[in-house]
Amino acid sequence: MVPRTSGCGSSAAERRVDRLFEPIPRIAYVALGSNVDPQRHVPLALATLRRLWPDLEVAPMFVTASLGPDNQPDGKPDFWNTVLRFTTAWNPTTVRAALRRIEHLVGRRRDGERYAPRSLDLDLLLLGDLIDSGLPHRDLQRYPFVRWPLALLDPERQPPYAMVPIRTQSLRLGDPLHLPEPLAL
Questions:
Q1: Where in the sequence numbering do the catalytic residues fall?
Q2: Residue 132 DSSP label
Q3: Which residue has the higher pLDDT, 98 or 167?
Q4: What is the CATH number for 153?
C-alpha cells in the first residue's frame, strides 16, 4: 500500500501509476472493400462505424477489379475500396473484433473461400505506430488500392516499417501516377 500524503486525494506517485493504465488514443487506419451490392453495404458500414468512432474520416472511394490468388483480375464483380481514419483508445484485438462484428452485421459470411465476393471487408492497416502480428497489415505492401486512398487521406503518414511517407512509398512501389477516377458518392 502506498502511503497517502494527505487525508484526501492521492499522492503524486499514485497518480503516475494510474496514468500507466490509462488507454492511449491512437490513429487507426482501416481498409474498406465491398463487391456485393456496395451501393447498399458501404453506406450502412460507414454509418455503423461512425457510431463507434464519430471522428471517422473517409478517403476517396475507388472502383478496382477483383483479384484472385494470382493477384490478377478474376472476373468477379469490381470492388469499391477506400481507407478510413479515426481515433481510438482500443487495442488491436478489440478494434479487429469490432470490425468483424460490423462485417457480420452487414451480411459478410466467412465460408472458407478466401477470394469469394464479399458484402464488406474491413482490415485494420495501422494503429498508431504499433507493431504486432498483424500490424502494419501486409496489404499495405501488396496492393495499390490500399495505398492510394491512404496516401490521399494522409500523404505524410509514415508506417512504422518504412523510412518514407506512404505517398513516397507508393511511388517507389510502382503505383500508377494516374489514379482511377474516385467514385462520387
A1: 108, 118, 121, 123
A2: B
A3: 98
A4: 3.30.70.560
For the chain, counts of helices (H) and of strands (E):
6, 5
User: For residue 117, what are the domain limits?
Assistant: 22-172
Alpha helices in 53-180 (DSSP H): 92-105, 139-142, 144-153, 166-172
Does 89 fall in a domain? yes
Q: How many structural domains compose the chain?
A: 1
Q: Half-sphere exposure of 166 toward its Cβ, with a 13 Å CA cutoff?
A: 27
Which range (52-56, 111-115, 123-127, 133-137) has the least confidence? 111-115
Report the candidate in 64, 80, 78 with the shortest Cα–Cα distance to residue 176.
Answer: 64
Query: What pLDDT digit, counting tens, does each position of 141-155 carry?
Result: 888 889 989 999 999
Cα separation, 77 vs 53, whole angstroms: 29
Q: 69 with 61: CB under 8 angstroms?
A: no
* pTM of the shown model: 0.83
Residue 45 lies in a domain: yes
15 occurs within a structural domain: no
Is residue 29 in some structural domain?
yes
Q: What is the mean pLDDT of residues 36-41?
A: 96
Tell me, what's the pLDDT at 153? 94
